[in-house]
Amino acid sequence: MKNFSSWLIAMFAFMFWGFRLVGTVLYSVGNEFMFAPSNMTMEIALLFITFICICFMIKRKLLAAIIYLVAHFIYYGPAFLEHFIGLFNNTLPMELYMSTLFELFALALAIAAVFDVLLDKNRKAHPTDQKTDWFYKNKDYDRKLDERADKNNYRTM
Predict the structure, then answer these.
(1) Total number of domains constituting the chain
(2) Residues 6+ apart with CB under 8 A from 93
């Protein structure tokens, strides 16, 4: 992850995950924090899936980004569509405006994460780390080390 945009997407994903985690814990205790999860079981499963996918998206794994996108569209997509239609029909209650905003942010973040991994040029061109290639793939360094090692004559007692 060499791009600033990749780091921003990862940070926003972790912050949104933490926000949803706090909201879910508070909702399970009985307090409501800006939103109410539509399905508590699915919300907890999504929190686990999201955490694992974000960790692998940092490693630039395309499968993790796709799973992240699909999971978020399965969970947030129908509710967002229903709230969006209600927003245009002017039938959406005021307490659901914040949930609609969070759903929009979740879907936009998932799309941005997939595009970020797809458009990363270094993911396919340089699958290995360039910082260590000079050591592991450098035969001249091995020869110099071997020649230097042969000249050391230490006495053993």
Answers:
(1) 1
(2) none
